[in-house]
Amino acid sequence: MALVAHHKHLSLELLIDEADQGSEQQDGRPASSSSASRTLSRSRRPRSSADVVLAMEEGQRRAEAGLRVDGRPASVRLTSEGLVIEWAAGRRRGPWPSSAPSSSCETVPFAEMLAVQRGQPPPAALAPSRLPSCLLSCLPCLRGRTPRVEVLTFRRSPACRCEWTPRTLVLEPGSEGEAEDWAAAIGAGIEAAAAGRPKSLLVLLNPNAGARQGRRVWQRVAPLFKAAGIRLTVRETKRPAHAHVMAAGLTAEQLRTIDGIVCVGGDGIFHETFNGLLEARAAAAASTESGAVELAALLSSLRLAHIPAGSTDAVACTLHGSRSPFTAAVHVCLGDSCLLDVLRVDTASATKFASCIAAYGFLADVTSAAESYRFLGPMRYDLVGTVKLLASRAYPARVRYIEGEVGRALRKHGSTVCGAGCSVCRAASFMHSRRMSEAQLAQANGSSSSAPGSPRAQASPAASAAPSGMAAAAAAAAAASGSAGLPAAPSSASLGSSLVRSEPPSPAAHTLTTAGSLGPASPHFVLPAADAAERQGGEEWRELEGEFNAIMCIVMPCRSDKTKKGMVRYGHLCDGRLKLVLVSKCSPLQYLRFLLHMSRHGCAPGALKYVTVLDAVAVQVEPLGAAGQVAGGSNGQQQPCGKLSCWNLDGELLPGPDQSIAAEVHPGLLRVFSRGVEQ
Ligand SMILES: Nc1ncnc2c1ncn2[C@@H]1O[C@H](COP(=O)(O)OP(=O)(O)OP(=O)(O)O)[C@@H](O)[C@H]1O
């Protein structure tokens, strides 16, 4: 690709990735070696203010110039990757005699630049006429005439690579003409690296999040989106569950104009938004109306972001390793993308989704009680948590889980920490996409391998609502992504077959039958053929019964300020598994020890005798306390009482008196603006 910046003073031609992509001149003809050398010799004309040369290196021409960067003399090279800046040798800061001449080199890739702009004139207070001449000679940029090119990018914290802070790289070329050339060339480089960056976003803002700081946080990061040229539509939530309604109500027309949704607030608004989207996606996949296929496809291609402004912000912390709104915003502007597993939780009366955690017992009790003390801000969790810890309640329950084929296959990777480019997530995505493609091809050929009466067969009316051509296309897409080894978003067809119930659930929907079979009353457990068959076989189900202080189904690592390494040390964003953490009945002191251990190291198998950590793809929990003891509290929230607690899904309490659940991981159901935590 040829990036050409013309100016009356300078013709700067950059050929990027000439070897890979085949070079073309501006008029579209291939660049011959003679034209290349003509450009070279033309550009080697002596420069008055800066020494600009084009050097031929390994078949690529690069621009190189001596200029000032961030106020210091430097040699800057423009390569196909970005800017390589070499600062001239200077004195290191530090006490004599250790200070010695040093030079440093840095690469700023185009892929990490948000925007480039011509510098603004200095503020009136710094007008040249008001400054002493000695200062002007030391700092030429204060003269007001020095041309400036500002590159908006970020800096990684030396202590923690995933913590990013804003940075404006200031180049001071010798003349206006050169400044324009540099700005144009850098702008073209950013443009070339901008594939996947969003152009238009819908922002859902919860002004009530955290210590009511949603608006303030948004005002801090909004300029970044504007500088990156992203169009924004901002909508504030007016009441609880408003984000759910707004997300579920998005029309195809609206979806066509946006590349993603940015949730500003806590985990709650993120949870509500993706629940709304998945609900709409399932409905569209099941619908036979014209336009439903497009709507489902638009919904499944949408990316979600979380700008943290809440009390816990586990989603942002887990996705980026940082709770900084700036870091989250940069990930969005750069168009980072990865898939996220989602836990589908079915009760007798509702289907909900969780991206972080479904917790029964201690965590749910704390969330439920803390809601009345929201005016205290995030501190409410510490206060209520202490009270609940001292009370230390255990709840009787029957827990069943299945490790599944994926879980077993990945068992040997048990001690891999999830990060950017995680090998476990990649391997799991590959396995899932391959399995999905096999199942969908079978479905497209009308030869489903499910036995009659199996959960898969029960969902077939919804699945068959999807046109067969679409199923085939989805299968082909899944097969293609599988062969490439890349994670693929589940297609609307697959989502339709796995999310939509063909009939309203009965209250007895989750009555457990004999160990090893799901029984006819569980129409919700539907996975591609391999798992369904495996579950029908029954031998994979395991059952535990006892009294538990906490039962937690943890889908992602769940990092937060209190659990820097994650609630589970070896959790993953997209491995198709959850970690089932069971804390057996214990004393307040033991529970405190568990909390401290989780906070410092994250739960891992074998660390504490009374804590069990298991891999699972599906879980059923049946509380064994007296039925009907979960009552509505004064604030409308569930209040656990007697021998029953309630479920907390990503910080939101599960409504309804029946807290028996059937939960299942849906691999890579959500696409988010993230690259995983940089280690
Ligand atoms: N305008 C609003 N007024 C009152 N409540 C709202 C409004 N908008 C959203 N909510 C509710 O506020 C609750 C909390 O929101 P959110 O999770 O974003 O913040 P948080 O609880 O402080 O953070 P975290 O979940 O990270 O602890 C959600 O249940 C949501 O439904």
UniProtKB/TrEMBL annotation:
InterPro entries noted in UniProt: ATP-NAD_kinase_N, CERK_C, Diacylglycerol_kinase_cat_dom, Lipid_Phosphate_FormReg, NAD/diacylglycerol_kinase_sf
Gene3D superfamilies: 2.60.200.40, Probable inorganic polyphosphate/atp-NAD kinase, domain 1 (3.40.50.10330)
GO MF term list: kinase activity
Domain DAGKc, first and last residues per copy: 196-349
GO cellular component, one term: membrane
Single GO biological process annotation from the record: sphingolipid metabolic process
Domain of life, source organism: Eukaryota
Annotated stretches, region: Disordered: 21-50, 439-463, 493-519
Stretches with biased composition (Low complexity): 29-40, 442-463
This protein's name: Ceramide kinase-like
